[in-house]
Amino acid sequence: xxxxxxxxxxxxxxxxxxxxxxxxxxxxxxxxxxxxxxxxxxxxxxxxxxxxxxxxxxxxxxxxxxxxxxxxxxxxxxxxxxxxxxxxxxxxxxxxxxxxxxxxxxxxxxxxxxxxxxxxxxxxxxxxxxxxxxxxxxxxxxxxxxxxxxxxxxxxxxxxxxxxxxxxxxxxxxxxxxxxxxxxxxxxxxxxxxxxxxxxxxxxxxxxxxxxxxxxxxxxxxxx
Length: 224
What we know:
The chain is of the alpha/beta class.
């Protein structure tokens, strides 16, 4: 049985636009999601510009994203071993067993910034408020990168940080390995489920989801 591949996109699938195990399952089943809307496209372009402008503050950056994907994990390890000051889009990977399945877990932070003998993991994001209520997916994403970093170098990163839409750097607390792996274990369970996990349908909960039309039509027909 092939290993299940997990990444930060699985966390995003669960949390955005709201927590939904069903969305994780439907994505795994290959159900086509709705196309990206004009608002989402604008936000994505603004996010890309925000990131590129911020990168100008780091002229001596090792651009790992410039290498073929098959080489990027090795290039990341080499750059860290050589003490690179800043790495752009490094790649980490680790293997573990979740929900009884072998899993390959991958992560690609925006930046690794050298600090003393270690590195800070920093994401560049557009939201102004990075907290559990507004953007838990960003916090979990950084916590995933922290776990992968520790698995790779046998020690934790110096800090987890976000450069937000207000052009300010704010710290993110690490949840610890147990909490993160419990969430990943649940995600693997939903992806491998033989039946759809239950998730209530609601206007405010489901309005921005790519599977809105699919779920809403069924709920309307069932008057549920």
